[in-house]
Write a structure and sequence with these properties.
This protein has 488 residues and is of the alpha/beta class. It has 13 helices and 21 strands. The strands form three sheets. It has a ten-stranded mixed beta sheet. β11, α12 and β12 form a beta-alpha-beta unit. α2 packs across α5, α7 packs across α8 and α12 packs parallel to α13. The longest helix is centred in the first third of the chain and has 25 residues. It is globular, with a radius of gyration of 24 Å.
Length: 488
């Protein structure tokens, strides 16, 4: 009894001491002696990720309620950044090789160089053909359920060489994942790679085995595959490559075929993501799969897109469904795996709302818990293609093949305001605005640099204070701008 009497208080004391030490360590961040540089992209100015001065912090213990303030608490940390980037499709690769060498190098530098570019670290590519391919193709011949004819020679002309150049430009490190748009036509109920249809039950195993074949073939070419999604846009019947899976069908395909096939092929360590479609059905889809422990054990995370506002005219992006998934399944990371302006229009080259949609989505997605953000095609031509079904869309960079000209949209700069300053391994920290006309998110990078993003979608300049641990700096958010404050 005597030992028990002394042990319990000692244990409690150690616990309290540990908590106090942890709190003391959390409270150590200070802006004292640090430089705060501001980088700005703003409408109707020449500012494009332009360094635009420094901030001076002074003691300011209690902001007033009539003062607009951005509060940042570096002691409160959340998810870790995996990466930001874009898709390396057949279309992007084909356009890349239509450009002269100097333009090719410019694109590689501007996307992937850590110092001269926006430091992309993430990529997505397609398994077999997608809408952003010049034709429909499969890796195996008709009727070959054993996959003996598996061959990626189609990809070797443009896509694999392009990805290898991207890898080199990114310093040899790129988190690359892959998604299938459709099984071969003969494996499907509609005998068509396009127009929806479903995977025939007798080909479940063959199709599951093909994912591993793809990973093996690409890695033999020096292209590491970090992970895969089960199926691109699982509920969409499209004019292009598409295949429908209900939630139950996806669940059963994972636990009975795809999960075991990946393990058997030696790829159990590759990340498997479910859904890969819009936020609208996100919770129902994810909960159906993850509530089955036999399926859930193979699933690393949840992939989603941002097109629910297109699927329902007049609707916005449904962040609340995304938030519910994050709250209910906190051990399954979220990744936005595709977003773009879906209808090509050259007027969008200079339409400021194009970039602002990226900024608003990224800030909301990151604040909800998303660990990675993937734009769609990194590069398209002056028509928004090539695309074999005429489904042309926008990209951050377009190449005008007729005039040998690269066109940088404001989406490129909005994406760069995040990717250049928030790196893999960065921890999101608490960041909030006292007014909803300013959006904000913030991260502490592994080198200790704090990056605070502030976005203003209004028509007015907004004066505000950036407040960190009792110190504040006066600054201004320009109308229709996005800025990153880097404190080091």
């Amino acid at each position: 009894m005597r030992i028990e009497f002394y042990t319990r208080p000692l244990g409690l004391a150690l616990l309290l001491l540990s908590a106090n030490l942890a709190n003391a360590q959390k409270a150590t961040f200070s802006v004292d002696g640090k430089t705060a540089k501001v980088y700005v992209t703003a409408k109707n100015t020449d500012k494009k990720m332009t360094e635009s001065g420094t901030l001076q912090f002074e003691a300011y213990p209690q902001p007033l309620e009539n003062e607009i303030t951005i509060f940042v608490d570096p002691a409160q940390t959340y998810q870790t950044m995996l990466g930001i980037g874009g898709a390396l499709t057949d279309a992007s690769a084909e356009v890349f090789y239509k450009m002269p060498k100097d333009k090719q190098q410019e694109v590689l530098t501007d996307y992937y160089d850590k110092d001269k570019g926006i430091a992309y670290t993430l990529g997505r590519t397609n398994i077999q053909s997608c809408d952003f391919s010049s034709d429909t193709y499969a890796y195996v011949k008709e009727g070959d359920a054993a996959l003996k004819t598996f061959d990626i020679s189609h990809d070797m002309k443009y896509r694999v060489p392009f990805i290898k150049e991207v890898l080199a430009a990114a310093g040899g490190k790129l988190t690359l994942f892959a998604s299938p748009w459709s099984p071969p036509a003969w494996m499907k109920t509609n005998n068509d790679a396009l127009h929806g249809g479903k995977l025939k039950a007798e080909y479940n195993q063959s199709w599951a085995n093909l994912y591993g074949k793809f990973i093996n073939a690409y890695e033999k070419q020096g292209v590491p595959i970090w992970g895969i999604t089960v199926q691109n846009e699982e509920m969409a019947v499209q004019t292009w490559e598409s295949c429908v899976f209900t939630a139950e069908e996806e669940r059963d395909f994972i636990k009975n075929f795809l999960g075991p096939a990946m393990k058997k092929a030696g790829y159990a360590d590759r990340k498997l993501l479910i859904w890969d479609h819009n936020r609208d059905l996100m919770y129902q889809r994810v909960s159906t799969v993850l509530e089955d422990p036999e399926a859930a054990k193979y699933v690393w995370g949840v992939a989603y897109h941002w097109y629910e506002d297109i699927a329902a005219k007049g609707a916005g992006m449904n962040f609340e469904n995304e938030r519910m998934v994050a709250q209910t399944f906190p051990d399954k990371p979220l990744m936005l795996t595709e977003g773009c302006a879906a209808d090509f229009n050259p007027e969008k080259y200079t339409d400021w709302s194009f970039g602002e949609k990226y900024g608003a989505s990224m800030i909301n997605d990151f604040n909800i818990g998303t660990v990675a953000w993937t734009d769609w095609n990194v590069l398209l031509d002056e028509k928004g293609g090539p695309n074999h079904v005429g489904n042309f869309c926008m990209a951050p960079i377009h190449y005008d093949t007729k005039n040998d000209k690269l066109i940088y949209t404001n989406a490129y700069y909005y994406l760069g305001q995040f990717s250049k300053f928030i790196h893999p391994g960065a921890k999101r920290v608490a960041s909030s605005s006292s007014r909803n006309n300013l959006l904000t998110t913030a991260y502490v990078n592994t080198d200790g640099k704090l990056a605070v993003v502030v976005m203003n979608k209004t028509d007015d300049d907004i004066d505000y204070r950036l407040w960190i641990k009792g110190k504040a700096a006066k600054t201004k958010s320009l109308a229709h701008s996005i800025a990153t404050v880097v404190i080091e």
